[in-house]
Design goal:
With 375 residues, the chain is an alpha/beta fold. Helix content is 38%, strand content 20%. Helix 5 (131-144) packs across helix 6 (161-173) and helix 13 packs across helix 14 (332-345). The protein binds adenosine-5'-diphosphate, iron/sulfur cluster (SF4) and magnesium ion. The site of adenosine-5'-diphosphate has 15 residues, from strand 2 and helix 1.
Length: 375
């Protein structure tokens, strides 16, 4: 596409549902609405952070963009091409340009393959270069991630978690992609090396002009690395904004609750903790109206019936009836403050909200089959 202002990635009304099968005949008795109508864009060279509790659909969203799982509906445009409409050969060539790095470098690198075989696999699939050229590419990709060329002859288990994640990143980079889905790339790593890997990703983005979808439940890391942030709840994006706006002036009650549970974010901005009653409902039976209403301290009658449409103010988009009303009455800063005080008045500060982030932090499980990288 020639239009330089067009986003590299534009996702519209994307849905990915998984059938629930029962009985001897494996009849379909329902659908898990893992991703249920999400829209966002990412400009070339920028990073969108995707946050939300475990099970809200982040991984499915990332995998759907690359068609590692087939979306049910909606559109994914990458560099002006509709990913969902591409036939296998064209899809393969698009996939070289869009790579994914998984949370768990132990699971995503086949332990029976040498690093060389792991890195070469994609090059062979995409017929990139002869033997010598492939070696050059592999050595260069490893070097970029801070791994010596001698790494090629060794096996993944010979390396530490951080080094394995570097190898996984090199494996994506060797194909010279433009876009990376980074699905919780540091969550499985030791805290002491998380920052090194994040800094490596920041450096690679700058040097190679990469574009990222950065999935994480770590809100501090997301704030650090992202230009824009989308907050996901039960298959939907409830709020999307430039990172600085979102962290300074969150609007959606769920975003307030997420932020209030993070000590570092809270200390800086002196937020009160917000308790969310109950558990996340099943994505097989999302609540009517606003999906967040069973847990929202500010829920009103309308919230139980009407799905809140998007309200936008500048680049800030939110789906919430109360936020829409507050925005009609004042600017985003005033609306954010007012929602924070309504939430506090509705029973915040009992110190239990950390539970919602804790559930996100303790979920190393990926859906079946997610342990494969894209060759
Ligand atoms: N292959 C699958 N088949 C059935 N359900 C799935 C599959 N993958 C994910 N799910 C379900 O979809 C929902 C979203 O999962 P996921 O995308 O992994 O969320 P997250 O990455 O935010 O933790 C969860 O309820 C999960 O159990
Ligand atoms: S629409 Fe209603 S239930 Fe949903 S987040 Fe806003 S106030 Fe809460
Ligand atoms: Mg996930």
């Amino acid at each position: 596409m020639s239009d330089a202002t067009a986003p590299l990635l534009a996702v519209s009304d994307l849905e990915t549902h998984f059938p629930i099968r029962r009985g001897l005949l494996r009849r379909v008795v329902g659908q898990v609405r893992a991703v249920d109508g999400i829209s966002f864009t990412i400009q070339r060279g920028r990073t969108l952070g995707l946050v939300g509790e475990s099970g809200c659909g982040k991984t499915t969203a990332g995998r759907s963009i690359l068609r590692l799982v087939e979306p049910t509906a909606g559109s994914v445009r990458f560099a002006g091409r509709e990913v969902r409409a591409e036939r296998p050969a064209a899809l393969r060539s698009l996939r070289r340009r869009m790579q994914i790095v998984f949370q768990d470098p132990y699971g995503s690198l086949n332990p029976r393959m040498t690093v060389r075989a792991l890195l070469e696999e994609g090059l062979l699939v995409h017929r990139m270069g002869d033997g010598r050229e492939r070696l050059r590419r592999m050595t260069a990709a490893l070097e970029r991630t801070g791994m010596p060329a001698g790494t090629l002859a060794r096996y993944p288990h010979e390396f530490s978690g951080g080094q394995r994640q570097r190898i996984a990143i090199a494996r994506a980079l060797v194909l010279e992609p433009e876009f990376l889905v980074l699905d919780e790339p540091i969550s499985a790593l030791d805290v002491s090396i998380q920052a090194q890997v994040v800094n490596l990703l920041v450096e690679l983005r700058r040097e190679l002009g990469l574009t990222y979808l950065f999935v994480s439940h770590d809100l501090s890391v997301v704030e650090y690395i992202s230009d824009d942030v989308a907050v996901m709840y039960l298959g939907r994006l409830v709020e999307t904004a430039p990172a600085t706006d979102l962290y300074a002036r969150p609007l959606h009650p769920y975003t307030h609750a997420l932020f209030s549970a993070v000590p570092s974010v809270e200390a800086e901005r002196r937020r009160r903790r917000i308790i969310l009653p109950g558990d996340v409902p099943s994505p097989a039976r999302p609540p009517a109206g606003c999906r967040f209403h069973p847990r929202c301290p500010l829920a009103e009658a309308v919230c139980r019936e009407v799905d809140p449409p998007a309200t936008t103010i500048g680049g800030h988009r939110v789906h919430c009836h109360v936020a829409a009303r507050e925005l009609a009455a004042g600017d985003a800063a005033a609306a954010s403050q007012r929602i924070a005080s309504l939430l506090t008045a509705a029973g915040g500060d009992r110190g239990e909200a950390s539970k919602i982030v804790a559930t996100a932090a303790t979920s190393p499980h990926s859906p079946p089959g997610s342990g494969k990288a894209t060759p």
